[in-house]
Amino acid sequence: MQANPDLTAAMPGLPAHANDATAVAWAAGSGPSIRAVLAVSLAGIALTATIALATFVTRYATGRMEAEVGSQLAEVAGHMAANLDQGMFERWRDIQIAASLDTIRSPSGTPSDKRAVLKSIQETYPNYSIVGLIDASGRVVATSLGLLEGVDVSRRTYFTDSRHAPYVGDLHDAVLLAKQLPRQTREPLRLLDVAAPVRDGAGNFAGVVVAHLDWAWARELASGLARSLRGHRAGSEIIILGKDGTVLLGPEPLQGKPLLTGTDAAEAGEGRIGAWSDDGKVYLSATAATRGYREYPGLGWRVVVRQDASRALASVDELRQGILAAGGLVSLIAGLAAWLLAGPIASPMRKLASAADALGRGEPLPPIADPIVREGRCIADALAGASNGIRQRDATQRLLIDELNHRVKNTLATVQSMAVQSFRGIGEEAAIPRRTFEARLLALSATHNILTQEGWHGADVGQLSVEAVRPFDDSCGRISCSGPTVYLRPQQALALSLALHELATNATKHGALSVGSGRVDVAWVVTTEDGASKLRISWVERDGPTVHIPIQRGFGTRLLYRGLDDDAGPEIEFAPEGLRYLASLNIDGSSQRTS
Question: What does the pLDDT look like over 325-336, one tens digit per residue?
Answer without folding.
Answer: 887 888 888 888
